[in-house]
């Protein structure tokens, strides 16, 4: 099969590319970074260098493809996240329609249908194609963005946001705390990008009728249980995940100088996770959990952390 993978060599796209190439498919990887061209070729894939904001580029890249994996990278430079997501989704939808792509796997998030303005899945409904929406839980790899703070480096009364597919957290490395307007004993489904890649690879080879939705997770636990696993791996077993109010969270994001509309969207995302609605939807779909446990990831995290 001829398969297009967007997302460059990201946490999902790289292992996905490796899986598909190993299976013998002709894989093209879309990246906006020319410096990734050699690395993509070294994986046995074909690089397509360009931007997903360029509909003509996307259309030409998708032409004659048997399947496309489409993802929209989140941006913290956009003042309005919902407008940005809608614009990028419309670019994809137009290109996929013009290229007459018949199999599409679209990356979304497990809170996407619960947050006003974030859900752009409906923009693909009019396509004459088989579409699967992937709704993964909170990524393990978000913890990588917290390394310096967990180690207590560079924290002087500031907040740092962690992001991806519904996980938004605040950490203070000075006190060894995870913070957000979800946390504490809230139960969350965490997921390894490797398990997501496995699930996407499976879906790309299928051709269900119409639109289907697949939730993906690796392990369910409370936020404090997750914090303890990560903390113990780096020698801070006391690490806690403190639950903030929506108001406190919003104030923290504004301190981080995020645009107001973006900050409000992030708070809403966390609020639905705290409410338990995301977990209810996940359980309702009865998905098969992945293989990678947080404790396995924590070992990798600790190795990277100790190198810093």
UniProtKB/TrEMBL annotation:
What are the residue boundaries of the NAD(P)-binding domain, all occurrences included?
7-115
Q: What domain of life is recorded for the organism?
A: Bacteria
InterPro entries annotated for this entry?
A: Ergot_Alk_Oxidoreductase, NAD(P)-bd_dom, NAD(P)-bd_dom_sf
What is the protein name stated in its UniProt record? Uncharacterized conserved protein YbjT, contains NAD(P)-binding and DUF2867 domains
Q: Which organism is it from?
A: Mucilaginibacter mallensis
Taxonomy-wise, where does this protein's organism fall, top ranks first? Bacteria, Pseudomonadati, Bacteroidota, Sphingobacteriia, Sphingobacteriales
